[in-house]
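Annex B, item 7. Sequence and structure tokens for protein A, then protein B.
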Amino acid sequence: MGEVDSAFIQIPENRPKLSIIQAEGIPVINLSPIIDNTIQDSSAIESLVKEIASACKEWGFFQVTNHGVPLNLRLRIEEASKVFFAQSLEEKRKLTIDDIGFPGYQDTEHTKNVRDWKEVFDFLSKDPTLIPLNSDEHDDRVTRWTNPSPQYPPHFKVIIEEYIKEMEKVGFKLLELIALSLGVEAKRFEEFFIKNQTSFLRLNHYPPCPYPHLALGVGPHKDSGVLTILAQDEVGGLQVKRKTDQQWILVKPTPDAYIINVGDIIQIWSNDAYESVEHRAMVNTEKGRFSIPFFFNPGHDTEVKPLEELINEQNPSKYRPYKWGKFLIHRKDSNFKKQDVENLQIYHYKLP
């Protein structure tokens, strides 16, 4: 995209208009009690855990401030992202790795995705990343995904790698708080990330759109992993479906904050105590929008199921187990192919 025109995006003529509610929006949580090592106030930690519990239960989304990510690093990756997407389409497509375009560069024409008005660049947290060869539950073979090596802008790969390290730090801190909020040991979730982690960073660019009331930057969806840590620019555009009334709520950009959303795996680990909620991204006619989500995902061989500590006779398991890597491959395959059946969702693993 960049200079790609609207011919790449086929807008359904009968797409309904989008209604949005302007509201205060999702909770904003100050993480300084766990980021600043000089703070030893246990009551501050306890209060923070309660805030996290409330946000996860009532919204499935929240913003965090005082998160410890250096502002200079965030500014560097945001600027590098803009420079990267400003290149010609020919140059960007040199970083499209294979038939599904992951990791690396993707645009709408390449993926044949007529739903979303954007272009992306994906970069793996671990290089290489081990992943199942296919979604067949009886096939144990694995393959390797490897990162591209962008030559422009200068030091782009180094900046991305530094930024990913900071995202992982934030991710693990948040998982500690979520674990405590569920009443389990703080490091409970770390075991799922020690080996074969499948996390990745995505750089998004949503060009100005001549049909802002008809098109979406990203259609309504839920994130299938553990956590998403999102940096969005001042243009904004993220909307969350409020659980209480199913209305779309605009998430107003908060300077230097990160937007966190609970993924499907947290919903399952918590046995539905917390819920992954629908969200979407908007576009506008005048300004392009840039955002940078980090998708914090466990090892491919992780068996996803409710935590044993949360299961009892009064609260039996609500899901049958599944292997994360197999689920991920199934979703990746169906994201880029026309399907005669619905894409795989976690409710397909819901127990009666």
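Protein B:
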Amino acid sequence: MIVAIGIAFTVVVVAWIYQALKPPSPKICGTPKGPPITSPRVKLNDGRHLAYKEFGVPKEMAQHKIILTHGYNASKHMHLAVSQEFMEEVKAYIVLYDRAGYGDSDPYPSRSVKTEAFDIQELADKLELGSKFYVIGCSLGAYPIWSCLKYIPHRLLGASLVVPFVNYWWPSIPSALSTQSFKELPKVFQYTFGIAHYTPWLYYWWTKQKWFRSLAVEVLFTDSDLKLLKEVLDCPTISLEKIRQQGEYECLHRDMLVAFGKWEFDPLELTNPFTENKGSVHMWQGGADRLVPIEFSHFIAQKLPWIQYHEVPNAGHLVVHETESFKAIIRALLAG
């Protein structure tokens, strides 16, 4: 009798653990139980779809074509802090897209740092942007740009990494720098990033447990960030529910697991893709950014001197949403 009770108890515990660790199935757009498709999409060669949004000069008339990748908990509807008049002045076209699992783009269980670059390449081909184009990545959305520099440099005219998040486990980062910067993060950030890197199978449970408060990047925003955030959230095209409509695991969680997991390459071992001065790579850092360690950006700029480093004094993490800063980002990229 005691043995039977013990076995039953064990089965119950194992089942509870399994359910606690297993993320729910995604609600895929366009399926009977999923949300409706509300955006134009391209179909990739593997059958997945990427949703996109166009901004600026019509691509047929544009002299410069740019693909912009959004950050964590964002989408193709991210607020662009420039006017149509400015885009006409610089003769530029921007396409923004929902990265895998976000918004109206299909989830991709096999996504990795590497696959992000080829999603961008396919998007460019399906939209007929030409053999070469520019790329901009913001915050956590900068890791696809590192991937582009590694895997499709021959397709690029230029690249911008705007307040790029860093992986504390890149092999070439000095341990003293990564350890010290990591310890300066709030404890919940340390736990979250560490679980994403070391025990990704625990990540879903971690996001649902109640003992520690969940990750909220807003706690590290500066006053200027919070002001810009209010303007962004007041934008009528922004809907947090739609960003995560296919399931938080498919967008937010997979994004973190890829960004802070083990990469297929070390970004600090990349070589200059524009040796003939026919393009340029830029890194933009807010001087008061509390999310991205400024020491990391300084080290990367020193390690990779072919990256043009720009520091915006007193700016926080949301520098991309500040009009004059975003204009400067565009102008520097297109200047080559």
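Comment on protein B: The mean pLDDT is 90.
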